[in-house]
């Protein structure tokens, strides 16, 4: 059973639409942990400390710090995490920005039984006391074809945490036995009770000409699922395909008929 960590109770405000940032209001003595490089601004009176480890000070030795730092590398994050603490006598604010167009989602871990599993680079910031760890997949197919590999992020505790993803974020509440199939790159996060696996797309025509890949993520309730409309990998692929020397604006992306589409519309550069 998860031991709750009594995270700091922070207030926040989301600002913006497509390029959001989150404004965290800290009372004197309160702290927020943030991913390195995510800071937008901070008021006078806030001190920042770059920490080797998980930022919560729970490690009892250097080896513990090394272990926690190693877990962060496995999830695609920086070796260090930064703690921002209000050392003044009045309220102060610190702002953190998402690294690409999309949405920031606030999640109160106390509402979701103290644990959320999310994609490897989703974490943005959290109240001090939230633990950022790793979640290993115990299913071979999910690890090989699930889009996120064998390792995902695990956010545990009883405080607020903020994750970011591309495009628009949709939240789905799954009832017991209810199944949702999602493109593997569009999955952002899910609660611990959701049964997550992958399955192959059915139908030879769908596999060859559908352009949607060979596998879909299958999520079975009960639980909550968050999905994104524009994964960063899809955005980056379109940008590269449109850049001179990198692509040819191919039609029918992902389909073997893509080249034929270029010939038919005269775009054969």
Please, could you describe this protein's structure?
This protein has one domain: Double-stranded beta-helix (4-Layer Sandwich). The protein is built from five helices and 19 strands. It is globular. With 269 residues, it is of the alpha+beta class. The chain has a six-stranded antiparallel β-sheet.
Kindly list the characteristics that best describe this protein.
single chain; 269 residues; alpha+beta; Double-stranded beta-helix; 6-stranded antiparallel beta sheet; 19 strands; 41% strand; globular
Short description:
Helix content is 16%, strand content 41%. It has 269 residues and is an alpha+beta fold.
Q: Any idea what the CATH architecture is?
A: 4-Layer Sandwich
- Average predicted local confidence, pLDDT: 77
Q: Output the CATH topology.
A: Double-stranded beta-helix
The major pleated sheet works out as: 6 strands, antiparallel
What spatial order of strands do you see in the largest sheet?
5-6-3-10-13-8
Integer count of domains: 1
